[in-house]
Every structure is written in structure tokens, then in C-alpha cells.
Design brief:
This is DUF934 domain-containing protein. Helix content is 22%, strand content 19%. By secondary structure, the protein is of the alpha/beta class. It starts with a strand and ends in a 25-residue tail after the last helix.
Length: 164
């Protein structure tokens, strides 16, 4: 078990990142995810597989390129290239709210303990922590805040419209 959290628990990462698609025989067995460029180029070949599929997106990639394939995808990997860049928060929120994606949304890159709670509220349910991050301490991030004011993927209404 490494520095991977899924659904608020430490987990084993069963997915394999894969690049270098050339022909169907070069694909490994098991669950793979590929960069968006390779998904777009080899979509038909990839959809013929019987294992789970995922796509990794940069925070500048256009979600509309995969919106019609979301029912077939099981994993979307969103990259945080640096702490101050929050575009992947928006991508996750759009995937959950606008496109209704039900699969795993994973945060990778500069994933910080302080952001895990907010990432979860935007729709992330899996987190690949940086090397050296404290896994046990990071798990506490999900319960550090108990009250939220704004609606998000985990709460439909703002605090003043909730029945409490």
C-alpha cells in the first residue's frame, strides 16, 4: 500500500497508467488509464477491451472531448501541477454535476493535505499523495471540518436552506 486514498481509506492502486498505444496487441491486461491524446486517437481500439478504462487529463484539457464516453469510463485522473492551480477542482465539479460521472475521480500531482477536504467536496473520491506525504495525517483532513456553508457535490443546499 502506498500513498493512495480511495473513499477516505488507504487502498491499493489497481490501475496502471499506460502510454504508447500502437496496436491492440500492445495493450497490457488489467485496468489501464491513458492520457487524453491517446484516448482520442485510439478510442475505438480501447473500447473493445473487456477490462476497466480510464483517462488522465491535464488541467487544461477540454472535458467535452470525453463527455460522450463517460458511461464507459471508470476512472478520470485529474492533475494538479502545482498547489496554486485550481482548475482541476472545476473539472471535477463539472464531471460530477454537469455530466453526472459516477466513477472514480482521482487527484494526482501536487495533492496537499490542506486541500483534500475541498477536493472531496468538488467530487474527488481518490487521491494519489505526493511521495513523503503522511498518509495517516492526510486521512484526518476529511474530518477536520464539520460544517460547510456552500453547496457542493456532497451537499445540495447552502447552510441556510438545510433542515438541521
Amino acid at each position: 500500500m502506498g500513498n493512495y486514498i480511495k473513499d477516505r481509506k488507504p487502498a491499493d492502486d489497481e490501475w496502471m497508467p499506460f502510454t504508447g498505444l500502437e496496436e491492440a496487441d500492445s495493450l497490457p491486461a488489467g485496468d489501464i488509464y491513458v492520457p487524453l491524446e491517446e484516448w482520442v486517437a485510439a478510442r475505438g481500439m480501447l473500447l473493445g477491451r473487456n477490462s476497466r478504462l480510464g483517462v488522465s487529463l491535464k488541467n487544461t484539457d477540454d472535458l467535452t472531448l470525453i463527455k460522450d464516453d463517460l458511461e464507459r469510463l471508470d476512472l478520470i485522473v485529474l492533475e494538479f501541477p502545482k498547489m496554486a492551480d485550481g482548475r482541476a477542482f472545476t473539472q471535477a465539479r463539472l464531471l460530477r454535476d454537469r455530466y453526472g460521472f459516477k466513477g472514480e475521480i482521482r487527484a494526482t500531482g501536487d495533492v496537499l493535505h490542506d486541500q483534500l477536504f475541498y477536493m472531496q467536496r468538488c467530487g474527488f473520491n481518490a487521491f494519489e499523495l505526493r511521495s513523503g506525504e503522511d498518509l495517516t495525517g492526510s486521512l484526518k483532513a476529511f474530518t477536520e471540518m464539520t460544517v460547510t456553508y456552500q453547496p457542493a457535490t456532497d451537499e445540495e443546499f447552502p447552510i441556510w436552506r438545510r433542515d438541521t
